[in-house]
Specification:
This protein is an alpha+beta fold and 532 residues long. It folds into 4 domains: 20-210, Immunoglobulin-like, CATH 2.60.40.1730; 215-308, 2-Layer Sandwich (Zincin-like); 315-446, Orthogonal Bundle (Neutral Protease, domain 2), CATH 1.10.390; 452-530, Immunoglobulin-like. It contains 11 helices and 30 strands. The strands form 7 sheets. Strands 1, 2, 4, 5, 6, 9, 12, 14 and 15 form a 9-stranded mixed β-sheet that branches. A 5-stranded mixed β-sheet has the order 17-18-19-21-20, with helices on one face. The chain starts with a helix and ends with a strand.
Length: 532
């Protein structure tokens, strides 16, 4: 995901870290959602008929399904009848959850089907409004856990399921949605049309979306396995088709280094939502204003396509591990830049990302794996994105290119269509590299901060001694820092300062006058330089 940071300043409350643990011990496993949703132009009210197939994972008296409760103007109101296995079930809908009484006759491992009908006006999650051209649009916008504002679900990435959408809308609209396109049929005795999409791939709810608007669309690359297409507003037809064409090149690079593309299609969609880009599985939504025709979408497109492997297929098991999605997508974009534009171009991106991390840390002293967050939206920050990317960059340096690329690929293969934690990733990298990486992961991901370095030179017995001090309040980091010494005659020498405590020194041989230093000339370390 790419974030429009001006929007993130608005505070949304989606639950604390402690509340999220309820999902990890949830007694049911949703297997499939079937959501039939009817849209209209006359109002923002939606009507939803839904059935949910689930498996009982543990004995329980009751369990919950997330669905936002109705208030005076928004939220969902259930029909009085909710059935399980075609029999009326006892339930209550309050505080944005449907609590359902289970049956003592159910056995662990048994499968059951909930059916329900509800209607209402989504406050968020399904964004209903006008695009920049004044035309009405409907877009799913679920991250992090806003899907339950418009359909009932277990709204957490740990519970993956398949999905079928049936979208009934006025006949002048087109529709793109998660999964394979199945059919487009006119609704009898109405001026509406029904679109059916379905996926057989297990997904978290954050990626299950629909997009309904007046679209121009075309296929860039028909393929026996999947199509690559672009869906844009007709007014931006020329600009959108030009900007999104690069997606084919991006896709080919990631397939080469990561393995087969995991979903039924890749649709790049101009949309009207709150994020700069959202990596919905197989149909990526990009902010409407990103489409300019000037080729400025390339990094954004690369980031969102990288998510199809990391975040969408191999998903984080809980929100504190978000960097496994956003950090991976950020660094894979850097790697795409490296192979296309060269190492110096990638280094420029890394330097900018390092600056973001350093500035952010001054006001938010939390680790990358953040278990103390107060709001899920607050996790969309430079720790999850840029510091996560920098961790991967330093890990690549730590284990070498061969082990790094093999480890990334094996991690994906091990957890595709599943969920993983930071520990899971570490264990894969240790296995592939043959290295113990616990301390490396601990200091860069589970501790706040980064090395804050003060450099000074001392002349001692005819030799120049370069001294490095760690000045951060946190404990000392262990790392190697490359330093390029620049001599008076224009020659240079690359040396390494190895930090195993608060201070490190390097004594240069006498005979040449040093006129300056370049710290980290090859851009390999996340650090901050300070002066007295």
């Amino acid at each position: 995901m790419k974030v429009l940071f001006s929007i993130i300043s608005t505070i949304f409350f989606f639950g604390t870290a402690n509340a999220q643990h309820q999902y990890l011990d949830h007694p049911i496993d949703v297997l499939n959602y079937q959501v039939s949703i009817e849209l209209e132009d006359a109002s923002n009210k939606i009507r939803v008929y839904e059935w949910i197939t689930f498996k009982l994972e543990a004995q329980c008296d009751s369990f919950f399904i997330d669905l936002v409760s109705a208030n005076d103007s928004t939220g969902m109101r259930l029909n009085q009848e909710l059935t399980i296995d075609n029999e009326q079930a006892d339930f209550r809908h309050e505080n944005d959850r449907i609590w359902i009484q289970s049956s003592p006759k159910w056995e662990v491992g048994s499968e059951h089907e909930i059916k329900m009908f509800f209607d209402g006006v989504p406050e968020t999650g399904l964004i209903i409004g006008e695009n920049k051209f004044g035309n009405r649009t409907f877009f799913g916008d679920n991250w992090p856990n806003r899907a339950h504002h418009w359909f009932a679900c277990v709204d957490h990435p740990i519970d993956k399921a398949t999905m079928k959408f049936s979208v009934i809308a006025p006949a002048h609209y087109d529709c793109i949605a998660t999964g394979d396109f199945i059919s487009r049929t006119f609704v009898r005795n109405s001026e509406k049309i029904k679109f059916d999409f379905a996926t057989s791939i297990n997904l978290p709810t954050k990626l299950m979306v629909i997009g309904v608007a007046d679209f121009f669309w075309d296929i860039y690359k028909p393929d026996p396995g999947f199509d690559v297409s672009a869906w844009v507003y007709p007014e931006n037809k020329k600009e959108g088709m030009k900007d999104m064409k690069v997606s084919v090149e991006v896709l080919e690079y990631f397939i080469e280094i990561l393995g087969p593309y995991p979903f039924e299609k890749l649709a790049n969609v101009q949309s009207t939502t709150q994020f700069g880009g959202m990596e919905n599985a197989g149909n990526i939504f990009y902010d409407e204003n990103a489409v300019t025709g000037e080729g400025t979408m390339e990094a954004l497109i690369a980031h969102e396509i990288a998510h199809q492997w990391f975040g969408n297929s191999a998903s984080e098991e809980d929100w504190p591990h978000l960097w496994l999605s956003e950090g991976f997508a950020t660094y894979l974009t850097d790697m795409y830049w490296e192979q296309k534009y060269g190492r110096e171009a990638m280094n420029e991106r890394l330097i900018g990302e390092r600056t973001r991390v350093v500035n952010f840390a001054k006001n938010y002293a939390h680790p990358v794996v953040d278990t103390a967050y107060k709001d899920l939206m607050h996790l969309l920050n430079p720790n999850s994105y840029q510091k996560g990317a920098w961790f991967l960059h330093m890990l690549r340096e730590e284990v070498g290119d061969s082990s790094f690329f093999a480890g990334i690929k094996k991690y994906y293969e091990s957890y595709q269509f599943s969920n993983a934690s930071t520990k899971d990733f570490r264990q894969v990298m240790e296995e592939v590299s043959g290295r113990h990486l616990s301390y490396f992961f601990e200091q860069w991901l589970h501790r706040a901060g980064h090395p804050v370095l003060l450099f000074e030179t001392i002349e001692r017995k005819g030799r120049t001694v370069l001294r490095m001090q760690q000045m951060q309040e946190e404990a000392s980091f262990q790392f190697d820092l490359e330093v390029e010494a620049i001599y008076e005659d224009g020659s240079t020498e690359l040396v390494v300062l190895s930090a195993h405590g608060a201070n490190a020194n390097y004594a240069f041989e006498p005979g040449k006058k040093i006129t300056g230093f370049r710290y980290d000339p090859n851009v390999k370390l996340l650090f901050e330089e300070v002066e007295y």
